[in-house]
Amino acid sequence: MMLYPKAEKLSLVLFLMILFAIKLCCDYCWRLDDDLLQAMAAFDAEQVRQDSLREVARQQQMALWEAQKVQRAARYEAGRREAPRERASRAPARAHHPDETAARSTRTGAELPLAAAPSAPHHVTTAAAASEPQYSTAYSSANHVTTDACSTGAAAVPAAAQRLNLNQVDSLTLLSVKGIGSYSAGKILAYRRALGGFVSLDQLDEIEGLRAENLQNLKQMTYLHSADALAAGDSLAAVKPLLVNKADFKQLLRHPYLSYSQVCAIVNRRRESGRIDSLEALEFMEEFGPKDLHRLRPYLDFQ
Q1: Is residue 152 a contact partner of residue 139, using CB atoms and an 8 Å limit?
Q2: Residue 126 sits in the same domain as residue 174
Q3: pTM for this model (two decimals)
Q4: How many Cβ atoms from other residues are within 10 Å of residue 302's Cβ?
Q5: Lowest mean pLDDT among 4-8, 68-72, 141-145, 175-179
Q6: What is the CATH number of the domain that holds 164?
Q7: What's the rounded Cα separation, in Å, for the pair 150 and 25?
Q8: Residues 18-38: pLDDT tens digits?
Q9: Looking at the 3D structure of the chain, how many domains does it have?
Q10: How far apart are CA 61 and CA 64, in angstroms?
Q11: CA–CA separation, 24 and 140 (whole Å)
Q12: Domain assignment of residue 213, yes or no
């Protein structure tokens, strides 16, 4: 009869110990949750700080590049203005001598009397050079044209000779175009690699992040097809085609003109039929519209 009170006391003690253990566990869990939340908040704050520092560094780098570009343009402009003065200062100041004028007229092939040479040497030399058909360009085969004839021929050179081939130009050359910085040049070259080459200057409008006035300057300074390619009838010589039947899923998906659903349709059709013979086979797929086929025509190779 005396064992029952002791059992009750023992059970009560055990119950209190269990409650105390549960309380300790709850306190530990709550403390752990608080520490975890604080750690996550600190991590997020550190990420925000790192992102802000990277953005500031990027803006400083862009400002530095722009300043360097402005300095290069200023040095180029100053050198272009200083070049005529240097040539004028280096040229010896001497009067036109009859013997010298006669020698110049003999080099150009004109038979002029010595008495007429001192009166108007520049006009006579220009007229003699203009009468020679082989001196119509900037440089002749014999390289005996006078200064006036060279200047006349240089003016006849077409402006297209000063333009850049957009499919062959590098990033350093693109920086010489007004309004094109390192960021724009990188995006242009990356888009050219993704396409495999440009077939039209209007494709520059598809690049995001470029200003319209800068693109207009770039279009005026560039061309796509060389004279040799046009003479051979191959206007797509600089375009690297995409091998439809050999490229894998990732290679097809990297092309800017192919969406995920279109690449899946090509791969499934290739798995079912073994290969795709021509672009006309894509017309029967609902994923491809007339506009898609028109854009893809220069870039797909079905060999």
Answers
A1: no
A2: no
A3: 0.46
A4: 16
A5: 141-145
A6: 1.10.150.280
A7: 96
A8: 988 898 888 888 888 777 778
A9: 3
A10: 5
A11: 100
A12: yes
